[in-house]
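Obj: model holo form, ligand = flavin-adenine dinucleotide.
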Amino acid sequence: MSDFRQLLGQVMRSGRCLADEPMSRHTTFRVGGPADYYVEAESETELADVLALCRQQSVPSYIVGNGSNLLVGDKGYRGVIVVLGKHFSEVKREADGRLWAGAGVLLAVVAKAALKETLTGMEFASGIPGTVGGAVVMNAGAYGSELADVLGTVRILDPKKGVLELAATELALGYRTSNIPARGQVVLGARFCLKPGTESEIRNRMEELGAQRRNKQPLEYPSAGSTFKRPQGYFAGKLIEEAGLRGFTVGGAQVSEKHCGFVINRKEATAADIKKLCHEVQRRVREQFGVELEPEIKQLGEF
Ligand SMILES: Cc1cc2nc3c(=O)[nH]c(=O)nc-3n(C[C@H](O)[C@H](O)[C@H](O)COP(=O)(O)OP(=O)(O)OC[C@H]3O[C@@H](n4cnc5c(N)ncnc54)[C@H](O)[C@@H]3O)c2cc1C
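Output (holo structure tokens):
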């Protein structure tokens, strides 16, 4: 690894590169052991070079946005965690109601920029704590809308073809899924197609949805949002509640008492606590209702 460290230093010309960086600092669950390397790429070239180096040296790499949909194991990640740095944080208005945002921009910031430009369509996303990159990959959604509804084109780094501009329709966007991870691609930025709106209506909708989140979701505890996807014909939270698992606890992890669809880090949970709790929830729901709960959160690293 020490040769690799040197090589990494050579390709990281302007971005930060940290060794043994605790991933608990970079996930909303606030758990996760050290990543061998944690780099913040500060240009498309730097990003491409780091990823190419990892491939050449057979060192695993993983892109992280705001870490709001990730469970990283307690023993951490053997490889390079790659984050898009400040270079990827631009938001700008374009013609005809289009808004461009770099992949590192938080959705809340995009929604605020849309409000400022009196453009409607992003209100649903204002409370989702992810970056544009993570949200495109996950086709994040809430309150009956999803990214696919407002996404025009996406700037992508492809491992073989380099930088591409793809239409949203080419990304196989489905319920919390896209074809981006399977292709080893990285989202560099996205263009949102919004409509002219009324400032007060956009603001009111954002405030109304924000209040709904605060009332229904355990935002006072670290979590990764909805732990499981919605099974066809059911609601995960309702099944978990009906299985008698409200408040069910493993170590420091708990099925939220406020919203059974959320697993929370109640008190100094480990990633192993969260993983074990999720398995037990899946087992009991399967046993009682014959329904398989599929995790929405991504797992990474060694547990
Ligand atoms: C309190 C709370 C509420 C939430 N509410 C919602 C909700 O209402 N709706 C919803 O859909 N989700 C919700 N989530 C989950 C989460 O915020 C979304 O899934 C979000 O889109 C993840 O974005 P991120 O930047 O944090 O991605 P991360 O968690 O960092 O990564 C998620 C996935 O995207 C990949 N990725 C990230 N950036 C890039 C990139 N630039 N290029 C390629 N791959 C990338 C990662 O490799 C990983 O596979 C919530 C989470 C929390 C904590």
